[in-house]
Amino acid sequence: MLIPRQKTPNLTLPMLDGGRFDLSSETNERGTVICFYRGLHCPICANYLKELEARIEAFAERGVNCIAISSDGEDRTRAMAEKIEAKALRFAYDLPLTVARDWGLYISTSRGKTSIGIEEPALFSEPGLFMVTPEQSLYYGSVQTMPFVRPHFSELLGALDFAIANDYPARGEYTGDV
Questions:
Q1: 175 FRET partner, CA 20 to 30 A, in 7, 20, 31, 122?
Q2: What are phi and psi of 64, to 5 degrees?
Q3: Which of 53, 82, 79, 68 is nearest to 15 (CA)?
Q4: Residue 4: which of 126, 153, 104 has the closest Cα?
């Protein structure tokens, strides 16, 4: 389990722009939003990523970078970026499922073709949304067992505004006896 205020796992993956995403090299004022999505086969992911794409500038105004990541390969990732008409959202691909597990993501098995007629990979990770500080410690995290009922980016932006205005710390860091 990831613990707020503690270092997150390393994350280095190829990106669609030809570069590499390296979480430890992110240089922004307040951190990085990492949106792990299921893959091209998921219509809910496409809508969710469209919402994130629409808010990239708002996150950037607050000193936060964003990236979308899945275990899909380059071709399927590029198809997702094209599907949502991404212009600002960065995409990384080839997430090893062992790394997905390190981040606490749930892993699912294929059920064949989805409602949009795209084959699910044999194994893939379920969604997760994280905000990681510039020091690579966990500030916010949410993982799901299913594609439904995800955190809203507008609410995350509102929470970020509150956290900035009030110097609000990450919560959930206690690991002692209860």
A1: 31
A2: -125, 130
A3: 68
A4: 104
Domains in the chain, CATH or no CATH each: 12-157 (3.40.30.10)
| Pairwise CA distance, residues 101 & 107, whole Å | 8
Indicate the pairing of strand 12-14 with strand 20-22. antiparallel
Strand partners, 109: 123
Nearest to 144, CA basis, from 104, 175, 177, 87? 104
HSE-up (13 A, CA, CB side) for residue 66: 25
DSSP structural state of residue 25: G
Please state the separation of Cα 146 from the chain's center in Å: 15
Digit-coded pLDDT (tens) for 11-55: 999 999 999 999 999 999 999 999 999 999 999 999 999 999 999
Bridge partners of 65, per DSSP, are: 32
Secondary structure (H, E, C), the chain: CCCECCECCCCEEEECCCCEEEHHHCCCCCEEEEEECCCCCCHHHHHHHHHHHHCHHHHHHCCEEEEEECCCCHHHHHHHHHHCCCCCCEEECCCCHHHHHHCCCCEEECCCECCCCCECCCEEECCEEEEECCCCEEEEEEECCCCCCCCCHHHHHHHHHHHHHHCCCCCCCCCCCC
Determine the Cα–Cα distance for residues 177 and 88; give it in Å rounded to an integer: 44
